[in-house]
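Researcher: Checking consistency across runs. Here is AraC-like DNA-binding protein again:
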Amino acid sequence: MKQNDSTKFLNRQYMLDDAFEIYYYKDFPDQGVAPHSHSFYEFYFFLEGKVSISIQERSYNVVPGDIIMIPPGTVHCPSLLDPLTPYRRFVLWIRKDYYQKRLSHTDVFRYLFDRCDKLSSPLLSMSQPRFNDLQAAIFSLIRETHDSRFGKEAACRLLLEQLLLGLSRFIYIRELSTHSDSGSLCSRICTYIDEHLSEAVSLERLSQVFYRNKYYISHIFKETMGISIHQYILKKRLEGCKNAMVTHTALEAIASGFGFTSYSSFFRYFKKEYGISPQEYRKRLYQDNAPQKPME
């Protein structure tokens, strides 16, 4: 994330936009924020720092990859545990009437906001690969809100919905995987793979985790998903690497972080999948995200 993508922390606790607002904050605050509530939804994506979040008098110690969902009218506040550590986070505000008019008619969005309203589990913890997927969506959305290209409003709406869709799917799959009777074996296998992309995931390992014969797992996965487990793992690793390229992390470190044992194998698979080298893709990505002059 580039420095100019960040915003100086805003003390106001009300919205100006009639739909949503999103901010990337990076600071060393010398004081916390008093307990407060909003008339809108707040989604808090934690990136770095030593912070505790109080929600309705219950405290949650957050770590990078955690997401807090706060419905309207809920009293909350962060407490800084170490002011010397950078405090980085994304904050997304969505008006309640915008949700009701534009999003509530779609099941996948209603599912997400219903769970936010219930407040039974406001804290979501994600693995780094999954969180990177959301970061990529947030990064694109922030860039679009700062730009003035033709179609900006439509693009922002689509990117917001892409972000919310990813969050809703994560909650849905997690809920399925915690109830083995209602969740399919393949759904639970996909969840496990998605959460362990940086590790060596093999049929033998999946057999140990799910107490099933490895040949049965291989057969049922291919029959249900249409691709082999090896192909699924490879595609998810490549997607994770692709999304992580919006950061300035070295390509070798990105490849290693998503389970590739060598950069040469990552390079070969990436070019075969996308028809372009990782370096060329990153170069085009930065060029596409460069601010453009508004149309006259």
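Researcher: Does this match what you'd expect to see?
Model: One thing to look at in this run: The first helix runs from residue 96 to 103.
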